[in-house]
Amino acid sequence: MWLLNTRTQKLKRFDSDSDRPRYAILSHVWGKDEVSLIDIQDLAKAKKKDGFQKVSQSCAVAHQDGYSWIWIDTCCIDKTSSAELSEAINSMYAWYGEAEVCYAYLSDVKDSSQEDPSGDGSSFRSSRWFTRGWTLQELIAPRSLYFLARNWKRLGTKRSLADVLQDVTLISRSVLLHERLLDDVSIARRMSWAARRETTRVEDRAYSLMGIFSVNMPTIYGEGEKAFIRLQLEILRQSPDQSIFAW
What we know:
Residues 226-247 form the DUF8212 domain. It is built from eleven helices and seven strands. It is an alpha/beta fold.
């Protein structure tokens, strides 16, 4: 697992769980010109990219909160290695769950001095973050999650905004707050959470749900809709829940 030092913005690889330090983690919607793992190894080059502000700001927030390390999916996965990419995708739910804190950066949301995030018609309720496939697991897995507005000011926590989140995502607050186990929620209900969400790659519709169903499987970009079929087969192998057929 690669982690980014929040002070130096340099990468370090931790190969075992026992060596891994406490870390923060970022959830966000990808934009144009994101900073990759290769980019971040040359800071002068990385700073010229539009996405570097997201990296530097998330490091600053985490550092201010006392965290020396942060994981950011754009620059902490070597996407040139299919093996490392597959490992990261299969481990991602666990990584979000094991993080000390998750910062969800909502680039299209006004801060709370401009509007009440829980109010009807707020930019928080309509954020694109709630429409993306990968952010579903990034919402559920962490125990501690802070929402940050487009100017990086805090909007609230998953707990303080639980009622709004339940309303927007249709995920019960008991699940969001880890008061109810995911395994106690029917497969059909968990599938329904993703119904209105989208991914850029068709395969990611399946891969982004693996953690939600405690499934591990190889990632094969190029297989298209077959990825979702494989996901359903893996779920059926592990669960007696027949609601998947209703879905």
